[in-house]
Fold these 2 entries.
Entry 1:
Amino acid sequence: MAKLSAAGHSVINCTPTSASTVNESLKKRVDKANSNAVDIFVSIHFNAFNGTANGSEVFAISNASKAIAKSVLAEIVKLGFQDRGVKNTGFFVIKNTSMPAILIECCFIDSASDMSKFNAESMAEAIKVGLIGDGDDSSSIEPATLKITQKTVLKPSTEQSADIPASELVDIAIGSYPVLDVRREERHYWVKWPNKTKAGRDEHFIFEEHAEIE
């Protein structure tokens, strides 16, 4: 999540904070992804079987999802893991989401050979590259003016304001504001706002219906 956010992408954590059953947990994940109309749903897991099975695989059922899955798996395989292929088992979270969805089995946690290769940072980078392309975010900062059309708040993530601690929100009145950088993505504007650093942040999100770029 951190790597995608650093590259300028909105990331929504769909993992529920509570659930009484596995089915309820899965439904909450799907509902959150669908209600936020995300572009891609990604579920990350680790396999376990008999201590000798090893390698990486990605599950997807639509043509769009399979293309994303192949890209992600190709990057993971570069780390030295056996390519177990893209598979089309209809797991609940990839069958019931309304956008392209993939479920990644990074490797086998009960495999000594897989664990000898596994590095969390390298795996996260491989997944990021598979999703959005190689290299770190190299986009140049482009000063701009953001026009706030409705009183709103700056947020440190794409979550609903009600789900974020008040200490991490910054009130913004209607008006035009110079910003270091701003990009529209999905249903939000990503904003680098130099003098709004509550909670130590200078990157924020605003719902698109509250603002526009001048």
Note: The chain has two domains: 2-132, 144-213.
Entry 2:
Amino acid sequence: MLKHTEILERMTAAQKEAAELILHARGILAEIKTGHRDVVTEFDRKVQELLIKRMSEAVPGASFFCEENSRRDSLTAESVFIIDPIDGTMNFVRGFHHSAISVAWLRRGELLAASVYNPYVQERFTAVKGGGARLNGRPISVSAQPLAESLVCCGTAPYSPELAESTFELIKRAFVAGLDIRREGSAALDMCSAAAGRAGVYFEPSVSLWDIAAGMLIVSEAGGRCCRLDGSPLPLDGSKSSVLAGGEQAVEDFLALVKA
């Protein structure tokens, strides 16, 4: 078995290779999955296939838990890569240039390495368990500011319209309590914005594990806290969950806001 840092190196190399597929994509056609907001493209599939191939070469016999349905292996396997090939597919389809390739490595139920790469601005957020979090090789840390002095990144759970009313009520509360709101369309990158201290917190009422797995380790290694909106631990069993991540003080302030 390769060392954690060596697996991270293979991971980032695979992301760099896959990024060329995204940056040179032409004639992007979206296919509907579960609804008109939930779409996939041939590039999602191609990126995912490439990442699976490269990480299988790095860790023979590895399992995979991926957004696109071709691979959803058990998360209780010895070694599992959790992959979102293009987090922010709607941004990708519409040309917003704010999407990321997200890969996390789970071994025996513990997140050990993670990388989130935005190829449009060449920002790579990485973390290894116990080794801190980095942006393009430079150490990063969450903000120590309270919610009142923080930007708030949010997601609107577009695949769960039944949550819209409660979600936008919480966004309104966060807007009043904080400095301003940012809604950018990529959970992985929002998690990294919190890890880098750009935002005090990121929250969303319903996300999938592949959206946030890499970000969970990156935020934690940046000194931050990740939990559900009720303050309980985030699950690693593949179930959907709410998420709140950021600096300890801003997270505590936000939890009080939720309960108010």
Note: The radius of gyration is 17 Å.
